[in-house]
Amino acid sequence: MEKGMKKLAAIFILLLTLNAGSIFAQELQFTVNLNYEQLVAQQKTDPQSMNQLQNYMNEFLNNTRWTNDQFAKEEKIKCKLNVNLTRSLAQGSYEGNAQLVVSRPVYNSNYESVLFTYVDKNFTFTYLPNTQLYFNENSYTEELPYILAFYANVALIFDYDSFSKMGGSPYVQRAFNLVNQARNSSPNKRGWDSGGESRNRYWLIENLMSQQFTPFREGMYKYYRQGLDVATENPVETRAKVLEFLTTLKEVNQLRPASVVINSFFDAKSEELFKILIEAQPDERAKAYTLLVSLDPTKTQLYQRLSL
């Protein structure tokens, strides 16, 4: 009997080991969309090669362990990466842009909120089919995995910051280290260096590292855990926290106007902010309108109804 019990225990442990991957999955659930129509127009593409490229990006982002934390399947951080390739100057050499979209469920609802949207105008890399790409976060290896690893860490920063105050700090440091490695070694410095485009990867992580943006990062926790996550129970409190966060953003924006972090935040949040605040009392709507138009003037037409 004892021998039989030991055998059953051994089988149970084996089953647990085999199923561990389905119980605790990788942290990110990325969907990669690859558009290469402009390359087709230039007759510089092979559909099979593009399929391999898309599969590589999906597998690298979804199958790499980015943290030491355990995630159940339903807890995965949902992300989209929309890649648009525009030029290929040589075989395997590509230029384009990419949009990263990170989402988060809102507690006690079916609503998924877009945490952050980032547009990268310097998505330049080399990829040859059936060629192994290596990644080492402590020493620059190749461009494509480094860019993808940067996106993965940005997704972790915003998700963790939304669940605990400054919770994404370890991933800020990791993304910063990736930028430092790449800016010293990458052949495509425009995406990584301070002298590049004002919304490039360097400036995104510089913002998140800066103490001037600490109120923004702490405010993400207030916006989500103390704001959106209580919306079904206390919508008045939600609106109060959102207005408080907008006031914080105004103070940060006065220190660092036209920053990539704040601009990217409003790219993701304008519709959501409007829907939350349109239900507010007239004095709150007036305050919200003034704040939003000053912070996000390109969406003035959307916010106009708050002032009526």
Automatic annotation (TrEMBL):
Alphabetized InterPro entries for the sequence: DUF4835
Keyword terms: Signal
Extent of the signal sequence: 1-25
Superkingdom of origin organism: Bacteria
Pfam families with a match to the protein in the record: DUF4835 (PF16119)
Protein name: DUF4835 domain-containing protein
